[in-house]
Amino acid sequence: MRLQRTLRQEINFEGVGLHTGRHATVKLKPAPRDTGIIFCRSDKGIMIRAHIGAVIDTAFATTLGYDSAKIKTVEHLLAALSGLGIDNLFIEVDGPEIPILDGSSTELVSIILKGGIAKQGKKRPYMRIVKPVILDDGHSDIAVLPYNGRRITYRVHFNHHLLGEQKQSIELNEENFIKEVAPARTFGFLKDVEYLRANGLAKGGSLDNAVILGDNGVLNTSGLRFKDEFVRHKILDSIGDLSLIGFPIYGHIFANKSGHATNLKFIKKLLSCVDCWEIVSEVEYPQTLIYS
Q1: Active site residue 260
Q2: Based on the structure, what is the number of domains in the chain?
Q3: Out of 19, 233, 252, 260, which one is annotated catalytic?
């Protein structure tokens, strides 16, 4: 079992938000053990804990909010922190959305590693699944089963002749996250862009920060980073959303066509099924750790 972790030093990055198109600067600051992940709208002086109770919107992104402040598109940063095992951090942002960067978590991983990861003198508790929990959300579903490790299996299906069904199963550890999940970019369909912008979304979207799929294929001249980049990005989003539970899940997650809304419904159901899990600090955990 590993110790809790934070950053060794403050590190900053900046960019535009995918949906708002607004520029923002983000400061990642070390935090004491047992702090958790805390967002702060520095332009409003309001702090928001990264937790399921702070979610105020799941339309095309996960948005946290409190009082008059909100922070949109937190899932890619949360995925990077979860994927690298960062437990305690202050995140200051001077705008309404986390910058999208290249649409994946790979730049965020580089930024975090540049800041350095510091072990803290207390063990990190885990949520160990002891009984299955299943959510049927109509068009999508999620389940988690007991498993000796941390794994996610994800299936997507789109009504597009070049995409269709993709499925991927990944053991969740730092090495796999960095290589197999973090580089997968957010994606969308050309036919949906006008709808999104008419509804005040995707104002900062471009071929530099999203994979766009048209009738004849991928519009990005660089092509795809993985043949199944789409399902890998859905895994990335799920890792970010599921981190809002507050504990890493020690179990096997199965997700079928799940998005942000279903992910958050599943978290609420899982937390309510108190006989299906236990919080433990000692488990046999077969994984590859960069920082143990």
Answers
A1: yes
A2: 2
A3: 260
